[in-house]
Write a structure and sequence with these properties.
Length: 149
């Protein structure tokens, strides 16, 4: 299992295709991201485990960003994968749903944010509009917090 490296202590370098871990910014709880699988021609997705508890769905590899206060992190989320055989009996894998996840590792709570789309969050982060990302994630009242199970 490899440790995720963070630029400036908050923004991860690219990670994926293997088992990873990092530590909570506040309590130093160990956050495990064991490899689950990957679709053909796609990035890997991983379980999210903290204190032997997990979430519904998976974390996409790629980035992980901590809030300035260190209480939360965000990254891409995947509900799951399914597939089907086409007329040539070739298996095709498809995503069920992709979104952004906000995680509070100290409280073992998370919420899935469907709007704006995860690609819109990536654009905001690339344009150095991180404050808007956190404003949206933390103030999305229609999205309920869920408990790790």
């Amino acid at each position: 299992m490899r440790e995720i490296e963070f630029k400036d202590g908050r923004r991860s370098d690219y990670w994926g295709y293997g088992d990873f871990y990092c530590y909570s910014q506040l309590s130093k709880n160990k956050i495990l991201l064991p490899y689950k699988s990957e679709p053909p021609h796609g990035n890997s997705y991983h379980q999210l485990v903290i204190s032997n508890k997990t979430i519904r769905g998976y974390i996409w590899c790629g980035y992980l960003l901590w809030s300035k206060c260190g209480k939360y992190f965000t990254c891409d989320w995947l509900e799951g994968m399914e597939g089907y055989f086409n007329e040539r009996k070739v298996w095709h894998t498809t995503q069920i749903q992709r979104a952004t996840i906000l995680v509070s590792p100290e409280e073992l709570k998370y919420k899935i944010v469907l709007e704006p789309k995860s690609s819109d969050f990536h654009k905001m982060l690339k344009s150095n509009d991180e404050d808007s990302v956190w404003d949206i994630l933390l103030n999305t009242s229609e999205t309920p917090w869920e408990d790790f199970c």
